[in-house]
Every structure is written in structure tokens, then in C-alpha cells.
Amino acid sequence: MINIFALDNEKKRLFQTQLGVNHNNSHLIWIDVLDPVEEDIIRIKENFNINLPDTETLGDLEASARFFELDEHLHLRTDFLIDEDKVRNVRVAFILSENILFSVHKEDLPVFRLVRMRAHNRPGSVNNAKDVLLDLYSTDIEHSADAIEEIYTRLEYIGQTMLQPKLTDTDAADLLHKIAYEEDINRRVRCNIMDTRRALSFLMRNKLLDESQQQETLQILRDIDSIENHTLYLFDKLNFIIDATVGFVNINQNKITKIFSVVSVALMPPTLVASIYGMNFQLPEFKWGIWGYLFVLFYMFLSALLPMLFFKRKGWLH
User: Fold this and answer.
1) Phi and psi of 102, rounded to 5°?
2) Which 3-state string (H, E, C) describes the chain?
3) Are 245 and 162 in contact (CB under 8 A)?
């Protein structure tokens, strides 16, 4: 699907239009291609002489495959964060050709929707294709910052749950699952901002921005540094919570092991008594009849009770 946006020269607002439609006092600045099919690729080629990249090959990690100039067109590959149903990074290909920005991606992104709404409702927020590109990066950083704030909020609940008086193994397993989820979000946010930093550095190194755009880029980079510090803190915080949760699990397991150990030691005296009276020779107590049998049972019970009372007095049963 091809979404075409033009800028009203008088009102300085972004509005959506269609390919081949002429508007007075406006010019195209952004063509957003969502999950392109062969027909979309052909239409872009015929109208703009641009070869759109294959969405299946957007995952290359090498800088030479992500930031380069080809046929006088600037090409960038950048990750954007999406957390609507499942948190993930979506790769977007940008092509900056003259005064038009082409963007290609497989999934619709909330950042793109927000930028379109802002550019339409706030006159003068964008003036050209590079402004749109920087606004996309800036909004993505805001989106990443929101994701970090949500992690802080959820970690507060996790911390309170971890510090409850009795943490069961089921509670600990649930906490570990939630911690792993938060760690995954934090990792994706960190990868996202690092990728955006590389793209912005590429634009600045190649002197492709005017002075006001450079200042905006520097502000975005400062925001990235701030978020990066938070991601590092969250990694340490998550590791602490994981260690504490695993420590509680070990304590619970040690309690179970201690109980088995105490029971084993307590049963050793009655086992010894039973072994003695099970020997194959006559003992005096055997002549007592039923009283001898009751005496042996009482003897075994008493030999088990005394160690248990000793363990309780020492506090080993808690």
C-alpha cells in the first residue's frame, strides 16, 4: 500500500493525497510504502525512477548495507520500536531522493501515525523531507522513552511482590517470567536507540542537514544518551531482582532440604531400636507379652520425640 503525503505551501500542513493528482500550492515530500507488492514497486519505479528495496533483505547489520548513497539517492535502514500487541523492532528502509522521502516497511508503526497527525495538526512542524525524517527519529525516541517509563512502573510492582513476607515458588516463577519480559523490552529499546544514533551520525557526518536540522539532531542525540543511561540502570536493576528472586527460591528449597534432613536424623533412633528388637535372639522384653510390644513402641516414639524437641529448641525447624 502506498501512502502519499504533500505539504501545503501556504498552511504548512501535511495532508494525504494520491499519486498523479496535482494540487495548487503544494508539493510531495513523503511517500510511505507499507508492505509493498509487485504492483507498488512498479508504480514507484515508473513515477519516480526509484527502486524500492526488498523488505526481506532489510535485516543486514553491516553499516555499508544500512547507510549508503546510490544513484544520487541516500539510503538508510533503521529500526523502529513497536509495542502494541508484542514488543519488537521493525526495520524501515528510507530513501531520500531530492526533496522526497520514501519509507518502506512491512508493518504499520505507531510512530509514523503520530508524525502524520502532528504534521497535519501543527502548521510548520515540517518543511521538507529531511524534517519528516528527523521528526520520525525524534518521535521514535519519545516512544522509546515511554517504554522505559512503563518498565519502571512495572518494576515497582515486581519489587513489591518480591518483598512480600512469604514468596512461594509459584510466585517466584511468575516473577522470573515478568522480569524476562521487561529485560527483553529494555534490550529492544537499547538496540533501537543505538540504531537511531548510527543513522543520525551518518546524516551529520555527510553534512546532509542544514543548521537548524543539525541542532535538532544534536538534541535527539542528547535524548538518546539520557535513555541509554536508563537502560544501563535497568539492566543492573533487573539483574538484582533476578538474583534476589533466585535467592528466595534457594531459601525455599533449603527449607525443604532441611526438613528432610531433620526428619532423617529424628528417625535414626527409632530405626536403631527397631533394628535391635528385630535381631534373631531372645530379649527379656519378649516375655512381657503385649506390654513388651507397647514398651518397644513407646521407646521408639520417645527416641524420635526427644531429637525433634531438641531441634525445635535450637530453632532448626523454622
Assistant:
1) -105, 130
2) CEEEEEEECCCCCEEEECCCCCCCCEEEEEEEEECCCHHHHHHHHHHHCCCCCCHHHCCCCCHHHHEEEECCEEEEEEEEEECCCCCEEEEEEEEEECCEEEEEECCCCHHHHHHHHHHHHCCCCCCCHHHHHHHHHHHHHHHHHHHHHHHHHHHHHHHHHHCCCCCCHHHHHHHHHHHHHHHHHHHHHHHHHHHHHHHHHHHHHCCCCCHHHHHHHHHHHHHHHHHHHHHHHHHHHHHHHHHHHHHHHHHHHHHHHHHHHHHHHHCHHHHHHHHHHCCCCCCHHHHHCHHHHHHHHHHHHHHHHHHHHHHHHHCCCC
3) yes
CA dist 15 → 31, 115, 183, 265 (Å)? 12, 12, 39, 81
pLDDT tens-digit series, residues 233-244: 888 888 888 787
Binned at pLDDT 50, 70 and 90, residue 63 comes out as very low
pLDDT band at residue 289 using 50, 70 and 90 as cut-offs: low
CA distance 313 to 24: 93
* Distance (Å, whole) CA 98 – CA 41: 19
The pair phi, psi for residue 26, each rounded to 5°, is -150, 160
How far apart CA 33 and CA 44 sit, in angstroms, is 9
- Provide the phi-psi class of 195: left if phi over 0, else alpha when psi is between -120 and 50, else beta: alpha
The model's pLDDT over 83-96, given as tens digits with 9 standing for 90+, comes to 777 788 888 888 88
Does residue 167 have a pLDDT over 90?
no
- Which residues does 95 contact at the CB level (< 8 Å), separation at least 6? 50, 52, 53, 73, 74, 75, 101, 102, 103, 104
Query: How many C-beta neighbours within 10 Å does residue 296 have?
Result: 19
- Tell me the torsion sign for CA atoms 129, 130, 136, 139: negative
**pLDDT interval class at 177 (50, 70, 90):** confident
Which residues partner with 16 through β-bridges?
5
